[in-house]
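TA notes. Do not distribute before section.
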Amino acid sequence: MVSADDLTYREKLVLLALYEEFDGGPAGVKKLAPVVHMDKTKVSRALNALEEKGLVEFEHMEGRRLTDEGEKIAEEIAEEMELPEDEGPYQCSDCGRKYKHLRLKCAVCGGEIEVNKDHPDAAKAEWNLERARMGYL
């Protein structure tokens, strides 16, 4: 059985996007790429890896959909990222919700994520956020 720890960061982002943005799917590469801020090739690779692990399944002409196991793991990842508001250097530019783990979009309102400059890890967080926006993570 696959666990959340067995997934790469990209795979987690794609799994979460299917879970949160598309209610489990189906969604194709063209729909997922702008949501996770990755190019289509990286999204396709992540989807293929998730399919090999049994977390998503392919529907002809529709895209990929979460399996039951994929939905359970996506729920775990979502809960892991939903930490109290006073933790972490990442925050939503619209609603102000703070996150400990790197995200590109707010799970609550969909706003852009920025770095809280007053946080002790702000420099590292800014570097990671910029790398994620450029598709390096």
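Switch to the second chain here.
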Amino acid sequence: MMKLGLGRKVRHFTLATTAVQCLMSGTIVYGQGQDSQVHDFVPAPAGTQIGLLYYLGSTSDTYIDGHGHKVDDSSLDTNVGLLRYVYYFDIAGMRADVNVLQPFGSLNNMRVGGSDIDTKDFSIGDVTLVGTLWPLNDPEHERYFAIATYLTLPTGNYSASEPGLGSNRWSLSIQPGYLFKIAPQWSVDLVGDVTFYGDNNDGPGGADLEKDPSFTMLGWLNYEASAKTMFSLGFTTTRGGEESVKGVDGSDVKSTTIRAEWSQMLSPTTQFLMEIGHDVDAENTFKRDATLTFRLAKFF
């Protein structure tokens, strides 16, 4: 009986941890794919610095297992902040940038299959370092193509018994993005990424956790109402990231989210952005009823 109880606890913890990493990677950070807001691949002039503050929230009362079945009596709320710094410069005749991202926050009301999962009230997430290069930077025709590389370091608060924002593993994401104009006030953002994961050698019960690569596609259709205001509709879909525990394979994580976004220049150097979203499909993760993003950006 003790072994059965422990096995169930480890299984539920592993499910919860996988789900949290999926949600948190693409926060810019929601598991370890990296998210992208509208026009993130439009570079600022060389020498520009940007400080950004994000709030990333979500709520879910549904967990979908690896077979596509709903796990009753499951829930998770996330409240995460993110600090980000960006610096633009030129190298070899091309625009480039460097980023530093630091998430922090809490996971609340985590429950899987009727089992409450203790979580950290507050934790610091993993630091992510980003470098972006623009082989195509054509402001005249409003066409941009860039490749961003995200390196996530295992610096966050991590516990093998309580899910938090730290993953206890390295990860590397390669993210190309293309933005182009389709009409005077309309544009499209297309972004993809592949993320590779190192091992977590301190999983539940001391188990080694291995994770397969994950893949994300993201698209935005944007309407520029004025020079200061933009409205956008988009989607994100993620596949992969199967996790193995003690050599036993799990299932790929799958999710598809529809999104709507409004961005507004409050002044020549300050921008506010708000985004809402809803998961229309999920597997081996929490299906989010609602997501909410606020972002404040200050240009220097």
